[in-house]
Design a protein that fits this description.
Helices cover 36% and strands 26% of the residues. It is built from 13 helices and 14 strands.
Amino acid sequence: MTFPAFSSSQIDPRARGKELGTHLRDRIAANYAGYTDLFAVAGATPEQVRAWAERALEASADWAPELAEEMTGIAAGSGLEPWQVAVVNARTEILAAIDATGHGECSTSVVLPESGPPRTVQTWDWHDHLREAPMLWELEPRPGHVVRTFTEAGALAKIGAATSGLGVHFNILRHDSDTDDIGVPVHLIARRILDEAATVAEAAEIARSARVSASTVITVVTASDEGNDAASIEISPAGVAVIPPEPDGVLLHCNHFHDAALAAGERHATSRPGTYDRLRHLRDHVDDLRDPDQHARALAMLSHAPDAPVCAHPDLTQPLNQRWETLATIGLDLPAGHLRVHQGGPCQVTEATWRTF
């Protein structure tokens, strides 16, 4: 099994969105319906969800008009309203507005070796009823600049790599400053970084330019003839912090803030401390995470610890907003501008299950 993939032929944002929406009409509609169910179980009313999504669309149009145009195009192609496509793109913001948290979530490892390209791997955990949401998307935001992203149907980006030699990993965070005064969706920040940035500093500048209402961490990695670089850009309404690698070139992140000032407002780990245990697992296996072979790095992520699994499987006795599954394991091939993707968690990885996109 593998995720569906689509390569856009259009450069104009609205036309590109319409093309994607037309091609993946049913999957985008199903993803929207899945989020409608999730928000309802988490306690949001349909009126709240629509109002929040409309605010997200307005904030997006102010901050990145071309990305708002792309969402409008997706709506036109898929038969949804623009605010419904905004629901998918602003799902992190809506969950923050509801004040929803969960045991699952993603773990990221980046190693900058003394020679050779960066070595990265991430698990992507999400709700099991949305396991059909992921897709792979190749697009050309401007002539000659190609972006490839693992995302959800209808969402503009998530984990990705660009032919500029830059890539991003993506983990959710929660902060006391998160609010229902909806701002720019963090998924759009990841997309603008992939579209526009060539360096960690440029990525951080893009992140700082957005007024956000929810928190996340975008780990940016670059490879060039001048050398490799990386940083975890922690984003919250309280501010943006840039976390560099350790002196040995290792950069690990789960679902809690590392910046001391932002950590004072930590929300996710106060009720879900398993994120600290997942980070300890990564640190304990850092020698394997240095391996140049991505298959070996993925196996280093394998942990089914009961309260802090890096490789998660859903507890079907729980309501859908508390069921978590590792839906993908992903690494970046930055010199080539590609992703290497496995559908599922590290316990299901074999040499044959990797797909280069």
